[in-house]
Amino acid sequence: MAKPKYNTPEKRIRFLKKRGNIVTFKEQFFPNGTANPGRVQILVGWLEKAKVTGHVKIVGQTYDTPLFDSIERLVEAIDWDKMEAWH
Length: 87
Fold this sequence. Notes:
The protein is an alpha+beta fold. The protein is built from three helices and three strands. The protein has one domain.
């Protein structure tokens, strides 16, 4: 059996910060808060945190995720079990 890749918060956040990684969410999100087609995956560009509000989003190489209240909420929205199985 393979060694777990995303079993700690530190490993998960490190994965989210690496450009080019593909992230799979538990539920569809609508890029940039628009009526664009719902997505469940994003190709990471970088993580962005708003200085004033503390909101966090993944800036993707094609589109961005919506804003999350915190990095913890962002991490909770990701389907780590599915990603563990796929990677």
